[in-house]
Amino acid sequence: MKGNIGAGRFDKGRMNDEDSSIDKLAYSNTLHGQANGKFAYYTADAGFNFLRGSTYKLGAFVGWTYYGQKSDSIGCVQIASPFFPCQVPMQPLITGRQESDWNAPRIGLYAETMLLERWRVSADVAYLPWTDFRGRDDHLLRPRPTFYDQRGQGGGGVQVEGALSYFFNKNFGIGIGARYWAMWTKNNSSVTYNCICDDVGNIVKQPALAKYSMERWGTFIELSYRFD
């Protein structure tokens, strides 16, 4: 059995909001800053070692992964199409909000080897044969409450990570590593435009097709404990 869990925050970044076929408009692109961002993730795996020695292991596993992220869009600069200007400069004004949640099964290989007595190098590579995506895109600049429900399944993904760890004793260690995660849905996923466009509170819904994808890479610090 193996698993990890993590969380973090971010207050910097840039986000492009691209739209097409809006009120007969072919294409629109706006640039926003990002703030109040937070993310959380976990993986949980079960597997077996088919090669094992005194200083190395090589095994296979199956498991599950989750990644969720929320952030606010700050300011707005229109960089394509003059017909729908943002009319808001890049300043600390919240103009939108994005929530994204990814779930997927994973199948992969794991390897580790001990260097000297207390140092360990480990790596795992996982293939995601299917993904489930749920998202919501709120547009806060518009005169009426407007949001997009985003749904996607199918697709696939890949997760790769490696770490160098130091063990204070045979069970407890600390390590530093790097990872790359990518997930995507199939092409005919859906997005639904929702607008409370009257004073009565009726919601106008306009479904359409979409495709979603995410990439994340970076470094991490981890604490590990091995059960005998």
Description:
- This is Outer membrane protein beta-barrel domain-containing protein.
- InterPro entries: OM_adhesin/peptidase_omptin (IPR020080), OMP_A26_sf (IPR053724).
- With 228 residues, the chain is mainly β.
- It has one domain (41-71, 97-225).
- It has no helices and 13 strands.
- It has strands at 2-10, 14-19, 28-52, 56-80, 94-115, 119-128, 131-139, 146-154, 156-167, 172-184, 189-196, 203-210, 213-225.
- Strands 1, 2, 3, 4, 5, 6, 7, 8, 9, 10, 11, 12 and 13 form a 13-stranded antiparallel sheet that branches.
How many discrete structural domains?
A: 1
Please provide the count of β strands: 13
Instruction: Give start-end ranges of low-pLDDT stretches.
Output: none
Largest sheet: 13 strands, antiparallel
How is this structure best summarized?
With 228 residues, this protein is mainly beta.
Identify the notable features of this structure and list them briefly.
228 residues, mainly beta, 13 strands
List the helices and strands and how they pair.
Elements (H helix, E strand, L loop, with lengths): L1 E9 L3 E6 L8 E25 L3 E25 L13 E22 L3 E10 L2 E9 L6 E9 L1 E12 L4 E13 L4 E8 L6 E8 L2 E13 L3
Antiparallel strand pairs: 1-3, 2-3, 3-4, 4-5, 5-6, 5-7, 6-9, 7-8, 8-11, 9-10, 10-13, 11-12
InterPro entries: OM_adhesin/peptidase_omptin, OMP_A26_sf
Protein name: Outer membrane protein beta-barrel domain-containing protein
